[in-house]
Each structure stands twice: as structure tokens, then as C-alpha cells.
Design a protein that fits this description.
- By secondary structure, the protein is an alpha+beta fold.
- It has a domain of 152 residues: Histidine kinase-like ATPase, C-terminal domain (Heat Shock Protein 90), CATH 3.30.565.
- The protein is built from eight helices and eight strands.
- Strand 6 and strand 7 form a beta hairpin.
């Protein structure tokens, strides 16, 4: 009798467990389907916006080229031709920058961090980012790196993605600072790496509080992407999200801006010899 009861209880438990597992996976499937549908709609709008944004400089280049070709030799004034060619060059540069950023962003949708995790010296790594970013800075702009960590501190990082992340942030800052200092501070917080890029901004910083494709649904943002590197910020957030971290853009009084991120990271010799 006891065995029969145990068998019945076992069958009931298995049945309830099966129903619970089935319900769990059905809910997950429903969420995945809705997410896929939303993603598809977002991408459709995104592609349409990109097409419109690309069309504008292309039409301008076509129009300027036609103007030059239709001009008679005796009508060609050097100053006028130089002005037309300069406009064509500006539009071409805008297109190249925009397409480059689109290509960069395409690498980060639905991917996982690569397997290039290696142990690096953080002080040396940050110094290399500073040297590279100085190539983009204006003559009166300086990039300073500070930390309370040991110069011997090491971290295990995906160096490819870390380079993308830091350079997008630093180049973004150099484009928005006319003169003065850009401060990069890195530290260890919550068993992870925290980096903040602080600078006096020419304009109020954008707040990136959603995913990359949601950000790019606004055609006006796409039009400004080349000048403000908005796509670069979207890439930064995508990378930090991959690492399970947090990304922030903050602005104080509309001028002093801070771009910061944190993600879990294994670190060694954090305060060695300090």
C-alpha cells in the first residue's frame, strides 16, 4: 500500500514538474518570439533611416559633380571650382565615416566576447590608449590618466573589445573638447574594472540608456553620427553589455561630461607596493 502511494506521489510530482518546465519554456519561447518580432521591426526602420541618410550626401556629390562637368572651360574660376570640390570632399568624408561606424557596429549585434582574454598590465594598457587617442586630439587638448591602483596591477581582458571600447570613448571626447584636459581614471570596484572619461564638453552629452538599435531609430541622430560619433557610443554600450556591465553618459550643468563604464573583471596585484 505504501509503495503504491509513493508511486502515485512520484507520478504526480513528475507530472507537476513537467508542467512547470513546459510552462517555463513556453514563456521563454513567447519572449524570444516577441523580441525577434520587435528586432525585425526595429531593423526595418533602421535600414530605411540609413538609406535616407546616405542618400543626402550622395545626391549632393552627384549634383556637384554634374555642375563641374557642365561648366564650360571659360566659366571655370579656380575659386569656384575649389569650393565645389571642397564640398564634394566634405560629403565624401561624411559618407566614409558613417559607413565605417556602421561596419563597426555590425560586429556587435548578437555576438559574445571573443576568446582573446589575456592578462595585461593595466597601467601600460591605459598609457597605450592615451598615446593613440592623442593623435585625434586638438593641439590645446591633453589626455591625462590617473588611478589609485598599483602600476603592477594586472587584469584579464578581451583586449580586442577593450581597445574598441576605449578608443570610441576617447575619440568621442577629443571631438567634443576644444581645449583643456580629458581625464581618464580607472579603478577597481565591485570585483570589476571601472573607467571614467571626464571632460568639459562643447555641448551637453547624450544619455545612452537603451540598446544600440533603439538609439538608431531616430533619423536625426543618424544624420549627426559622423560629427558626434553617436554610433561609437552605441558600440561602447553593446560591448559593456556583452561583459555584463554598466555604461553611463552623464553631464553636469550641461558642460562637464563623464562617460563611464564598469564590468566584472579578474584583477591581480591591485595595490602591490603602494
Amino acid at each position: 500500500m505504501m509503495i503504491a502511494i509513493l508511486i502515485v506521489v512520484f507520478i504526480l510530482v513528475c507530472g507537476i514538474g513537467f508542467l512547470l518546465v513546459r510552462r517555463h519554456y513556453l514563456l521563454q519561447l513567447d519572449v524570444a518570439v516577441k523580441r525577434a518580432q520587435k528586432s525585425n521591426q526595429m531593423k526595418t526602420v533602421f535600414v530605411e533611416n540609413v538609406s535616407r541618410v546616405l542618400r543626402s550626401p550622395l545626391k549632393s556629390i552627384e549634383s556637384l559633380s554634374s555642375t563641374i562637368l557642365e561648366m564650360k572651360d571659360e566659366e571655370m574660376q579656380p575659386a569656384q571650382v575649389k569650393k565645389l570640390v571642397t564640398e564634394m570632399s566634405d560629403n565624401t568624408a561624411e559618407l566614409i565615416d558613417f559607413v565605417k561606424q556602421l561596419h563597426e557596429m555590425s560586429k556587435f549585434e548578437g555576438v559574445t566576447p571573443s576568446s582573446t582574454f589575456i592578462e595585461v598590465n593595466l597601467s601600460e594598457l591605459m598609457a597605450s590608449y592615451r598615446r593613440e587617442a592623442m593623435n585625434y586630439a586638438r593641439a590645446d587638448t591633453t589626455i591625462r590618466v590617473t588611478t589609485d591602483l598599483s602600476p603592477h596591477c594586472r587584469a584579464i581582458l578581451d583586449t580586442n573589445l577593450m581597445h574598441q571600447l576605449m578608443m570610441h570613448l576617447l575619440v568621442f571626447a577629443t571631438k567634443r573638447v576644444s581645449n583643456g584636459d580629458i581625464f581618464v581614471r580607472y579603478s577597481c570596484e565591485r570585483r570589476g574594472l571601472k573607467v571614467a572619461v571626464n571632460y568639459v564638453d562643447l555641448a551637453q552629452a547624450e544619455h545612452i540608456d537603451t540598446d544600440a538599435y533603439m538609439l538608431l531609430q531616430d533619423e536625426d541622430i543618424l544624420k549627426e553620427s559622423g560629427r558626434k560619433s553617436i554610433l561609437g557610443l552605441a558600440i561602447c554600450k553593446a560591448i559593456v553589455d556583452m561583459f555584463g556591465g554598466e555604461f553611463f553618459m552623464e553631464s553636469e550643468n550641461g558642460k562637464n561630461s563623464v562617460a563611464s563604464f564598469w564590468f566584472p573583471c579578474q584583477m591581480k596585484d591591485i595595490y602591490k607596493d603602494l
